[in-house]
Amino acid sequence: MSLQTPSIAARHAESGALICEDGLARPPWAATDPLLRAYYDTEWGMPVRSEQGLFERISLEAFQAGLSWATILRKRPAFREAFDEFDPEKVAAYTDRDIERLMADSGIVRNRQKILATISNAGATVTLRAEGGLPALVWSHQPRETPRPRILSDIPTRSRESQALAKALRSKGFAFVGPTSMYALMEAIGMIDTHLLDSHRRGSSGTWKRL
């Protein structure tokens, strides 16, 4: 989330779902901010299985490190424009001129290491096609069970599977893919369902039964 889930620091650990004015139950992080609410209601936790979609989310998870997810979400349109809609082949071909263009773009997070990692990760994504592709690698780490959280503190920040995914991606040349950020990725793309049990979105991905 973080591409996707709000930062762990932003979570109210002992909070359960809140009933919003529309009568629907949401976690505290998605209860008030209209942008976060729309993201939660329509996108977060829904399956993402395309190469481009996963590359974008891995990239945004990297840029989110140290920042709030709300910041990245508000900048996402600018990120998409700056990085050619996160087309891996186009990004992999970026030159020093592109790096300087990105460093001058106030619409995105101007962090040189993260920009360089995104370009390198694009190349790794393209290379992975010969081994089945990024979606196959990522989804091969889906666990057999999903958390059943009643309050936010029930939700882990990493798992054995997220550690294995991070290790596998690093072995293929990816950077900024730690176990915590990969757990957030798994939440965001529906590999696990960490919606609170009484949230109106629990089970919405179709990947897991509601309970």
From TrEMBL:
<feature type="binding site">
    <location>
        <position position="195"/>
    </location>
    <ligand>
        <name>Zn(2+)</name>
    </ligand>
</feature>
<dbReference type="InterPro" id="IPR005019">
    <property type="entry name" value="Adenine_glyco"/>
</dbReference>
<dbReference type="GO" id="GO:0008725">
    <property type="term" value="F:DNA-3-methyladenine glycosylase activity"/>
</dbReference>
<dbReference type="Pfam" id="PF03352">
    <property type="entry name" value="Adenine_glyco"/>
</dbReference>
<protein>
    <submittedName>
        <fullName>DNA-3-methyladenine glycosylase I</fullName>
    </submittedName>
</protein>
<keyword id="KW-0479">Metal-binding</keyword>
<dbReference type="InterPro" id="IPR011257">
    <property type="entry name" value="DNA_glycosylase"/>
</dbReference>
<dbReference type="GO" id="GO:0046872">
    <property type="term" value="F:metal ion binding"/>
</dbReference>
<keyword id="KW-0862">Zinc</keyword>
<dbReference type="GO" id="GO:0006284">
    <property type="term" value="P:base-excision repair"/>
</dbReference>
<dbReference type="InterPro" id="IPR052891">
    <property type="entry name" value="DNA-3mA_glycosylase"/>
</dbReference>
